[in-house]
C-alpha cells in the first residue's frame, strides 16, 4: 500500500498515513484532511487525530497513543510513532502469519517508558491464481456435469413417454 511519513519535530512524532487502496497512489491527496497534534485533554498532554471534511467539519476524532494504529472511516490508516530517543523498540517481529489463507498479520511490540504497545497490521492476501491445467480441469468438470445432466433428463423423458404409451395401450 502506498504510504507517506511526516515528522512533527515539535511533538517528536512521526505520522505515517497509508492509502485505503493500491489505486490511491498519494495517501495525503484526499477530500478529507487528517490533522495530528499534541493537545491538553483533562489536564494531561495527549496526541489527537482528526479527520476533517472539505467544509471544515470534524467527522472523526480520537486520542492516539505513541506507536498506535488507527483505521480512519475513509479507509486510510494512521500510525503515530514516537521519535523520542527515550522510546525503545523491545521487539520487532517482521514475520507474517497466515490466517485462514486470506489474511496476513504483521506484529510490532514497542516499549515507551513504563508502557508497552503492540501494533498489528492486518491485510487481505490476494487470491492465488490457479494453474492453467487446473482451470482446464474445472472447465472439463463443468462440461462433463452438463453432459450427464442432459442424458439424465433424456432418460427421464423417455421413461415418461414409454409409461404413457404402455398405459394407453392397456386401457
Keywords:
about 170 residues; alpha+beta; 2 domains; three-stranded antiparallel beta sheet; 1 helix; 10 strands; elongated
Topology (SSEs and partners):
Layout: E1 3-8, E2 13-18, E3 33-41, E4 44-52, E5 58-64, E6 68-71, E7 77-82, E8 87-99, E9 103-112, E10 115-124, H1 132-170
Antiparallel strand pairs: 1-2, 2-7, 3-4, 4-5, 6-7, 8-9, 9-10
The percent range for strand residues is over 45%
Number of strands: 10
Helix-strand sequence: EEEEEEEEEEH
Helix count from the secondary structure assignment: 1
Q: Tell me the radius of gyration.
A: 30 Å
Describe the global form.
elongated
Which residue ranges are poorly predicted, with pLDDT under 50 across at least 5 consecutive positions?
89-97
Specify the helix fraction band: 10-25%
- Going across the major beta sheet, what is the strand order? 1-2-7-6
**What is the average per-residue confidence, as pLDDT, rounded to a whole number?**
75
Distance between the termini: 78 Å
Structural class assignment: alpha+beta
How does this structure look, described?
The protein is an alpha+beta fold and 171 residues long. It folds into 2 domains: 3-124, no CATH class; 132-171. Helices cover 23% and strands 47% of the residues. It has a 4-stranded antiparallel beta sheet, with no helix packed on it. It has a 3-stranded antiparallel beta sheet with strand order 3-4-5, with no helix packed on it. Strands 8-9-10 form a 3-stranded antiparallel beta sheet, with no helix packed on it. It is elongated and about 100 Å long.
Amino acid at each position: 500500500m502506498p504510504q507517506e511519513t511526516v515528522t512533527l519535530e515539535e511533538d517528536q512524532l512521526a505520522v505515517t498515513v497509508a492509502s485505503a487502496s493500491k489505486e490511491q497512489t498519494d495517501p495525503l491527496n484526499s477530500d478529507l484532511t487528517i490533522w495530528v497534534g499534541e493537545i491538553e485533554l483533562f489536564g494531561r498532554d495527549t496526541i489527537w487525530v482528526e479527520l476533517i471534511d472539505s467544509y471544515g467539519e470534524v467527522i472523526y476524532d480520537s486520542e492516539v497513543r505513541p506507536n498506535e494504529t488507527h483505521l480512519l472511516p475513509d479507509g486510510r490508516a494512521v500510525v503515530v510513532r514516537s521519535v523520542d530517543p527515550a522510546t525503545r523498540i523491545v521487539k520487532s517481529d517482521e514475520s507474517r502469519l497466515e490466517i485462514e489463507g486470506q489474511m496476513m498479520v504483521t506484529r510490532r511490540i514497542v516499549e515507551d517508558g513504563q508502557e508497552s504497545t503492540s501494533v498489528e497490521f492486518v491485510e487481505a492476501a490476494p487470491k492465488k491464481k490457479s494453474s492453467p491445467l487446473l482451470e482446464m480441469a474445472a472447465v472439463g468438470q463443468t462440461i462433463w456435469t452438463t453432459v450427464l445432466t442432459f442424458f439424465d433428463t433424456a432418460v427421464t423423458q423417455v421413461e415418461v413417454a414409454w409409461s404413457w404409451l404402455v398405459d394407453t395401450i392397456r386401457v
